[in-house]
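Narrative of accomplishments. A recurring question from our advisory board has been how the design workflow behaves on a single, concrete structure rather than in aggregate. To address it, we present the structure tokens for one chain from the evaluation set, followed by the sequence designed for it. No filtering or post-editing was applied between the two.
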């Protein structure tokens, strides 16, 4: 290329660069954009933890008070479930179109949903999907098919442990720990922050074993050592398309509890169990709002052997 030609190319490129930069400046000035808002910074405790302490209530509203959606299930699936639930509960059963666990209209800006896989459904292995559906559709066949919440068992350190707990939770933070005190059924949970290892796989606990760390405003909790007697998710009324969401003791959950501001905590969990699911999956939803002034945790008198379960055989047709 001759020198004059090279000069013309250089000038053209320079002109384009100047034009792009100039347009960007003008565009930025005309958009009325504001300086970015600094992220909320919580106060710190003596051991350096962000202060999450307080009494909280659920940031979601279970039941039919909100718009609920079944878009992640086909019409055929919904119709079959509605037919079956009426069959096992009796003809006076209400319409069970109020599933709010796998996909639900949010009360805040984050979705209440299985967000991965994108289709919003749990990635069951084929045999596990068949078992899940059988438990869901035959809840009265045997006691172990009933929701652990109904049977007054601990709900586990799973998303179900928060979803099924429709009353208050107190969080306290002794040095090196985060402790959850649940109003529901006297449950409690200790998250250790000292980097300790999980117990061996022979140790199986209703609430699992929780070790955690802080990443900014987010408490990250690694949970293992589960019993297989809890569920992962489920409808607040103990019926719905997600009921019977069993798992094996190989379950591993990584939870992320993020303090959005002084009164708000959001939740995300990545769930894996190679014995039951084809891949890890993820759920996300609003978790806690700080309770109003004067809120107290009260006795929650749920207990094993509740007389509700005295029917033999179980179900509405029992004599």
């Amino acid at each position: 290329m001759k020198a004059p030609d090279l000069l013309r190319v250089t000038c053209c490129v320079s002109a384009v660069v100047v034009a792009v930069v100039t347009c960007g400046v003008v565009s930025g000035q005309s958009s009325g954009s504001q300086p970015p808002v600094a992220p909320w910074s919580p106060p710190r405790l003596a051991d350096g933890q962000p202060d999450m302490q307080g009494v909280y209530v659920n940031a979601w509203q279970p039941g039919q008070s909100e718009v609920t959606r079944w878009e992640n299930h086909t019409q055929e699936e919904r119709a079959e479930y509605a037919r079956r639930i009426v069959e096992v509960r009796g003809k006076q059963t209400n319409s069970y179109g109020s599933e709010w666990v796998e996909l639900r209209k949010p009360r805040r800006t984050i979705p209440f949903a299985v967000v991965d896989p994108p289709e919003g459904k749990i990635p069951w292995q084929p045999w596990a999907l068949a078992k899940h559906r059988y438990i869901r559709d035959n809840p009265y066949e045997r006691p172990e098919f009933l929701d652990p919440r109904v049977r007054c068992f601990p709900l586990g350190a799973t998303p179900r442990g928060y979803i099924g707990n429709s009353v208050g939770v107190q969080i306290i933070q002794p040095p090196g720990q985060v402790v959850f005190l649940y109003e529901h059924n006297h449950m409690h949970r200790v998250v250790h922050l000292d980097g300790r290892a999980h117990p061996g796989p022979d140790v199986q606990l209703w609430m699992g074993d929780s070790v955690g760390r802080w990443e900014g405003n987010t408490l990250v909790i690694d949970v293992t050592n589960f019993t297989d007697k809890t569920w992962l998710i489920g409808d607040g009324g103990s019926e719905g398309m997600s009921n019977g969401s069993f798992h094996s003791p190989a379950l591993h959950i990584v939870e992320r509890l993020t303090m959005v501001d002084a009164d708000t905590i959001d939740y995300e969990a990545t769930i894996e169990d190679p014995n039951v699911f084809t891949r890890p999956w993820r759920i996300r939803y609003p978790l806690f709002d700080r309770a109003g002034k004067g809120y107290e945790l009260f006795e929650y008198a749920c207990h094993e052997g509740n007389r509700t379960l005295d029917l033999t055989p179980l179900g509405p047709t029992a004599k």
